[in-house]
Amino acid sequence: MTSGNQPTVVIVPGFRDHMPEHWQSLLAERLQQQGRAVRIVPQIDHDKRLRRARVENLERVVSDIPGPVILVAHSVGCLITVHWAQETKCAVQGALLAAPADFDNPLPPGYTDPLTLEKEGWTPIPRRQLKFPSIVVASRNDPLGKFERIQELAQAWGSRCIDAGEVGHLGPVDGFGTWPLAEELVQQL
């Protein structure tokens, strides 16, 4: 926790890990400039595609932080967070889950197939309510998760769901570098 008694913000990237031009990286920089404590879950080199390795990596990061955290996850980072939340005893003040990937349904060509995702431990996606407040941001044209399906997941997790409109997968390719709404939503948690 920082001297202002604010929870540490933990950035949970997806499969592409930390990217300097991504809104999560830019948010981390802005929050640090404001004096907030921020940790970015580091890339792992072993078993990178396995859910268990990613969840253990998040647990290592969060368990080393004194006091509660706010998680800021994107894409597969949302799935890492939701799987992790089923097991952790760490104190969480809230989570922002932006553009969760829906691995329970087939992904577009060029992405991992359902059988591989199952073998890697990603499916089924947990449907139990999270033990902390959360906000899911859903896109109307996300190629990795249909809007209605993401709404269903948000409801199962007990999350508030925000309709972001047509923002693709909320990545740099979709024009999200800086995403001011992210900072506003973190402040709400």
Give the H and E element order: EHEHEHEHEHEH
Look at the helices and sheets and give the structural class.
alpha/beta
Terminal residue distance: 15 Å
Strand content: 15-25%
Helix coverage percent: 25-40%
Shape: globular
Give me the CATH superfamily.
Answer: Alpha/Beta hydrolase fold, catalytic domain
Strands across the major sheet, in which order?
A: 2-1-3-4-5-6
Beta strands, count: 6
Any descriptors?
6-stranded parallel beta sheet, globular, 189 residues, alpha/beta, Rossmann fold, 16% strand
Question: What can you tell me about this protein's structure?
Answer:
- The protein is of the alpha/beta class.
- It has one domain: Alpha/Beta hydrolase fold, catalytic domain (Rossmann fold), CATH 3.40.50.
- It is 32% helix and 16% strand.
- The chain is built from six helices and six strands.
- It has a six-stranded parallel sheet, with helices on both faces.
- Strand 5, helix 5 and strand 6 form a beta-alpha-beta unit.
- Helix 2 (51-63) packs across helix 3.
- The mean pLDDT is 92.
Please give a quick description of this structure.
By secondary structure, this protein is of the alpha/beta class.
Layout of helices and strands:
Elements: E1 8-12, H1 23-33, E2 38-40, H2 51-63, E3 69-74, H3 76-85, E4 92-98, H4 114-119, E5 134-138, H5 147-157, E6 160-163, H6 180-188
Parallel strand pairs: 1-2, 1-3, 3-4, 4-5, 5-6
